[in-house]
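Ticket #4471: complex job returned nothing on first submit. Input attached below:
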Amino acid sequence: MNLFDILGPVMVGPSSSHTAGAVRIGYIARELLQDEIASADIYLHGSFATTGKGHGTDRALIAGLLGMKPDDMRIPDSFAIAGKQGLHFTFQTKNIKDAHPNTALLLLTGKNGRTLEVQAASIGGGRIMIQKLDGIDVNFSSEKPTLIVHNLDQPGHVAEVTSMLSHKSVNIATMQLYRDKRGGYAVMVLETDQPVPAESIKWLEHLEGIIKVTYFNGEEE
Amino acid sequence: MSYTSLKEIISEAGKRQIPFWEVILQDDLEERKVTKEASMGQMKATWEAIIHASGNYEGSLKSSSNLVGGDGKRMAEYMKDKEPLTGNFTGEVITEALRMAESNACMKRIVAAPTAGACGVLPAVLVPYYKHGKAEESRIVEALYVAAGIGQVIAYRASISGAAGGCQAEIGSASAMAAGALTYLEGGNNRQICQSAAMALKNLLGLVCDPVAGLVEVPCVKRNVIGAMNALSCADMALAGIESRIPPDQVIDAMKEVGDKMDSTLRETGLGGLAATQRGMEIAEQLDLCYNQNI
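Support reply: We reran it on our side without changes. The output follows.
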């Protein structure tokens, strides 16, 4: 933990895990969808389900989906703001197998029709872990520059991504590969030490076999 | 952080002939690859956020469960009529601890130090100290480095999470951080800083995390008061030359051991202690904490 994980974060209360972490889950989910959110069906598991209401976990998640950060004073009023901005949402509880006690599952639809399913856990101190995207296991903290590439499971895509990063002098901090089945849908998640240039992301998006590229710089949050 | 013990920090400070707080600052620069101006600027902003949060208290607010709110105001009103038993300065410390912890429960903006549940302890001692002109802002910022360094060692060797180590890990850690900061501000040496932290943590060893209905409200708000009062007395003891017979790092290790042995019902699950009393369970039942319908 760095110094400002101990003295910080500056956040709206009452709980770093149930409130600040929940805002961040919503915020990162919005970044991942890359669209304004039209509707969100949210499922709460474990301690989020049992104590979430008293901790404002629900209002915190919606605040994040609206683009607010954990220190935004408007978090308590997020439901009203969502109403004004046309964000429709529902909350339900769900027992998610083998999930961390503070887990939320978000089914999102963007205003341009994009959809995304995000499962994330709040792991303490306002820090989070994104665990599943569209049902595929991923595990990343969202604290570093993060590049997520969805592609067909065929040879060469990892090499395309890593050689592009090497060419741009971007060092890979962590790298994970997942797929639903052989030859099916695959996801690579790369956390990097330097930001990835926007033009390189555009270039990646146009390659054959690459379905979707998502990038955000968690260090700037 | 590269330091895994308070002993190492003291030894590094001695070797390089720099103060305790600067060892922590240098370590931050090394770890996050930032400039001194950036680190100190962020610490100053953290202090400003604390001052802002203190000024932003509203005595009329209630938490969404209705269990918490207005006690900071009550304490301040009581002090208008008479000097509290503990003296005026300590009365202000009590008031500030209540205000900050209540603001947190009421979804106002606070600074987690080290957690949101314990966010009142450090401001409770530092804000009145600062307002009485006992230290310039620049020295308060230095004291925050001292506090954060102590917190980092505790986080590394033990835990700062109630779910992992009970309330001793939250209020206990905050109290140790506050004691160290105060001892520094009062001119204590590095050994005294660590002794005050050790005594503060020792005094709260074994404190369980038993929040009613699982909320950061009861008994969390008032435990911020005891964390702050404990920090004051331990800083005074350390400045008087009183020492912990058990070395500071070993006290932290003991806190970890006690936390590991603590039953899970007493670690932020809302299933034991005050939460499991008859009244505690009635409150939990009465609160509408269920989501099984669309909002």
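The longest strand of chain B covers residues 109-111. Closing as resolved unless it happens again.
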